[in-house]
Amino acid sequence: MTARGLRLPTGKLLKLPAALGRVNRACSTFQTFAEVLRLPTRQMTKLVFPLQELQRQLTPDSRLDLHVKTFDPSLEDISKAESVFTATGRNRIEYLSSAVRLDHAPDLPHPEVCFIGRSNVGKSSLIKALFSLAPEVEVRVSKKPGHTKKMNFFKVGKYFTLVDMPGYGYRAPEDFVDMVETYLKERRNLMRTFLLVDSVVGIQKTDSIAIGMCEEFALPYVMVLTKIDKSSRGHLLKQVLQIQKFVDTETQGCFPQLFPISSVTYSGIHLLRCFIANITGNLKTDGL
Ligand code: GDP
């Protein structure tokens, strides 16, 4: 895919993207899509469409195993989606409130998306990466043992609400499961659940808690594979193919295309933003 026909504002030329060199969190905060488009095509594809890049490693026969183009927006669409995630005077992106019960959750008219996954899967890092164009937003983390686990609500202008669900583990207390279950089952404006799986270790027993809930409540959900910068390409490809097979054969409600991401290199983050803008009805693309 090339940047043909794409016109972008020149904008501020900020520092070199983190994806090009060593990890630099402060600098990656400024990684705008206009900068990404200045990369050589191969590097840009790897950063924006990591699944396509992985697919290139497969033999022609097995390429169809990965559904890389179920969601296939143009670069122009991806660029437009960026404005949804960019904080401005007119587009306020902010932490709203936290809740331990659904009846304490803010009552908002906007479409909602939620992020769910095991503790340590990289959920806070991903939400921070998605909000990197709104650096004032504070993504709260309550990880201390014994701390009450809460759902955190973020308002993204007039576009949508993003909910950071508490991470779960083996010893998820009963009331925690109840809270998440009730939210998933009853939240009327919930448009999509993003279920995070660590690409280094693949689907773990505890991940089945969330997969089971989404399937049981017939929710539309999407599998996001985190930390793709951590493995060798061979290992990552093996995990991705295994997870894809699982999605194809064992799930009903899961979106067929996987979303591999890295919150360190920003790989896959722009595509995920575009997908979220699209499914919340804020960007009409031909890509879905
Ligand atoms: P959470 O418990 O799901 O919110 O996980 P965190 O976002 O706090 O991440 C857990 C650990 O994984 C932290 O040490 C992060 O720095 C690390 N981490 C998160 N995302 C990535 C990633 O994309 N790449 C790498 N290499 N490490 C990551």
Automatic annotation (TrEMBL):
Pfam hit, one: MMR_HSR1
Gene Ontology CC terms: mitochondrion
Keyword Nucleotide-binding: yes
Domain of life of the source: Eukaryota
Record-level Gene Ontology MF annotations: GTP binding; metal ion binding
UniProt keyword annotations, A-Z: GTP-binding, Magnesium, Metal-binding, Nucleotide-binding
PROSITE patterns: G_ENGB (PS51706)
UniProt keyword Repeat present: no
Cofactor or coenzyme needed: Mg(2+)
Domain EngB-type G: 109-282
Family indicated by similarity: Belongs to the TRAFAC class TrmE-Era-EngA-EngB-Septin-like GTPase superfamily. EngB GTPase family.
The protein, known as: GTP-binding protein 8
